[in-house]
Design brief:
The protein is α+β, with helices and mostly antiparallel strands and 435 residues long. Helix content is 30%, strand content 26%. The protein binds ligand EPZ. The site of ligand EPZ has 25 residues, from helix 1, helix 5, helix 6 and helix 12.
C-alpha cells in the first residue's frame, strides 16, 4: 500500500507548489477514508472472506491493514484499491501500542473485537491533534452492552463476563461519528436489540451500516439520529464497494474555486456536498451537479460568507481548514465558527505567514479578505491543515513549500498527482531516508 518512499531510501518531505495556475479538467474521487477505516475492521466480525473495493490508497488504511494482519487476519491486496480480508484465523484480541497510536481509527478495533470475541485490549487512539478527543461515549456504549471496562497502564481493557454482548438502549451525550460507528460494530453480533439515540448521520455511518447489512446484519435507521441494530445471528463474508470521499470531493471543489478554475469532479455523490455547494454558490462560484459529477467554475471576485461547522448534514468540520484558505481572498470579512473541536485553528498562523489577515477569538476566526496570498514555506500540523496549505499554495503568488506531507498522505490519495492532472505546478521534494 501507500509509501512515503519515492525510491529506495528516499522519503517524501515536501510539496513545492508554484501558485497562480487555474485548475481545469476532470478528476476522479477516491474511496472515503473515514468509511474505509471502519469497514475494514468490520471484516473481523465474520469467519469468512470479505472483498472490499474502492479502498483509498492512503497511509491510514495501510495502518489499519497492518493492525488486522497483526491480529492474524489474512490480508490480500488484489490491486492498490481492492483488498480481500479473511479473519477466520484471527487469534489475538490485543492491539500493539506502536500500531494503535499511529491513527485515530484504531479505536474501531475495540468494537469489532468485542463484537466477535467478547474481549479487546487496545491502547487509546492517536490521530490529529485537534484538542481533547475523549472516547467516553464509545465506552459508555460498550458498558451498556455488558462489557466491563478498565483503563490502565496505557491500555483499554474491555471484556464481557459472559463472552458475548447484549443489546442496549444507548443515548449519545455528544453526536459522535466514532462512537456511533464503534457501537454499530459491537452491536451487529450482540444478542438482541440495540438502539442508538442521538446518533451521528455522516455518509460514512450509512456506508458502514450498508456493509454490515450486506454481511447479514439487521440495521435500520443509519443516516438518521435513531439507529436500530438487531443482532444475535452469525454474519457471512461479503463483497462491498466503499463510497467516494466527501472530504476529498470538498477539498477539490474548494481548490477549483480558489484558483479561478473550471473543474469537473467525477465519481462523487453530490448530495453529500450540499452544505459546501450552497456556500460556494453564496460566494459567487458556479456549481452544478448531475448523477455522480460536480462542475465547479470561478472567475474570482468572490463574496465573503460565514461558515459554522456542524455535524452532518451541516458544514463539515473537516472542510473548515481548506475553506478558510479560500476565504482569505474573498471580498469582505468572513466569520468561521468551529463548533466541533476546541483547537482546529492552529494552521491559521501559517496562512498569516502567506499574507492572510485573520484574527482568532476562541472558536471563531474572522477572515478579512486580502488581494492575494504570497507563497512561503509552511508546515501542515494535521491532515486537513495540510489541505489548507495546499489550497493556499495553489492560489498564492510565487512558490509555497508545504512540509508535513506525512499528515496529508494519511487522508488524500495522490493529491499532488490529481492536482497536477488539473494543471497545478507541484513538485515532490524528497530527502534520503535517515539523513
Ligand atoms: C471522526 O472523528 C473523523 N475521524 C474526523 O475526521 C472528523 O473530524 C470527526 O469524525 C467529525 O466528523 C475518523 O472518522 C477516523 P467525533 P471522531 O467522535 O470520531 C467529542 C479527518 O480529518 N467526543 O464525531 O473522533 C469530540 O471530542 C478526521 O478525517 C466526545 O466528547 O469525531 C469532538 O469534539 C479529523 N466523546 C466531537 O465529539 C466521545 O466519546 C466529535 O467527535 C467522542 C467524541
Amino acid at each position: 500500500m501507500i509509501e512515503n518512499h519515492i525510491k529506495e531510501g528516499a522519503v517524501l518531505t515536501k510539496y513545492v507548489i508554484s501558485g497562480g495556475n487555474p485548475l481545469h479538467g476532470e478528476v476522479e474521487i477516491s474511496g472515503a477514508k473515514n468509511a474505509a477505516v471502519a469497514i475494514l475492521p468490520a471484516a473481523l466480525l465474520v469467519d469468512g472472506v470479505c472483498r472490499i473495493e474502492n479502498v483509498p490508497n492512503i497511509s491510514d488504511v495501510t495502518m489499519i491493514l497492518g493492525i488486522l494482519r497483526d491480529l492474524g487476519a489474512e490480508v490480500r491486496m488484489i490491486n492498490p484499491t481492492t483488498v480481500e480480508l479473511d479473519c477466520s484465523h484471527v487469534y489475538k484480541q490485543n492491539v500493539p501500542y506502536e500500531l494503535a497510536r499511529q491513527i485515530r481509527a484504531s479505536y474501531y478495533l475495540i468494537g469489532a473485537l468485542l463484537g466477535r470475541f467478547g474481549r479487546a485490549e487496545v491502547p487509546p487512539p492517536g490521530g490529529c491533534d485537534l484538542g481533547v478527543r475523549p472516547i467516553d461515549q464509545h465506552l459508555k456504549g460498550f458498558y451498556a452492552m455488558g462489557a466491563e471496562i478498565q483503563v490502565e497502564n496505557g491500555f483499554i481493557y474491555a471484556a464481557s463476563p459472559t463472552g458475548r454482548l447484549h443489546g442496549a438502549q444507548i443515548y449519545l451525550d455528544v453526536v459522535s461519528v466514532g462512537a456511533t460507528m464503534n457501537i454499530l460494530l459491537a452491536a451487529a453480533l450482540a444478542d438482541g436489540l440495540t438502539v442508538i439515540e442521538n446518533a451521528a448521520k455522516e455518509p460514512h455511518i450509512v456506508d458502514l451500516a450498508n456493509f454490515l447489512n450486506s454481511m447479514g446484519a439487521r440495521i435500520k435507521g443509519a443516516g438518521t439520529d435513531i439507529i436500530r441494530i438487531t443482532g444475535g445471528r452469525e454474519l457471512h463474508g461479503s463483497n462491498y464497494t466503499i463510497i467516494p470521499d466527501q472530504i476529498e470531493t470538498g477539498t477539490l471543489m474548494i481548490a477549483a474555486a480558489a484558483t479561478g478554475g473550471d473543474v469537473v469532479i467525477t465519481g462523487a455523490i453530490p448530495t453529500h456536498m450540499e452544505s459546501l455547494s450552497a456556500k460556494l454558490l453564496e460566494m459567487g462560484v458556479y456549481v452544478s451537479e448531475d448523477d455522480d459529477r460536480i462542475h465547479v467554475r470561478s472567475e474570482g471576485n468572490l463574496r465573503a460568507v460565514n461558515i459554522k461547522t456542524q455535524v452532518y448534514p451541516g458544514f463539515p468540520t473537516d472542510l473548515q481548514q481548506p475553506m478558510t484558505s479560500l476565504l482569505t481572498i474573498a471580498n469582505g470579512s468572513s466569520i468561521v465558527t468551529e463548533t466541533i473541536y476546541e483547537a482546529r485553528f492552529k494552521y491559521i498562523e501559517e496562512l498569516r505567514r502567506m499574507g492572510a489577515n485573520i484574527r482568532v477569538i476562541d472558536r471563531t476566526a474572522i477572515v478579512d479578505g486580502v488581494d492575494r496570498l504570497i507563497g512561503a514555506p509552511v508546515t501542515a500540523t494535521d491532515l486537513r491543515a495540510g489541505a489548507s496549505m495546499i489550497v493556499a499554495g495553489l492560489m498564492a503568488d510565487g512558490v509555497t513549500e508545504v512540509s508535513g506531507v506525512k499528515y496529508i498522505m494519511r487522508g488524500y490519495e495522490d493529491i499532488d498527482k490529481k492536482l497536477i492532472g488539473l494543471g497545478a505546478h507541484i513538485e515532490r521534494s524528497v530527502k534520503m531516508g535517515g539523513l
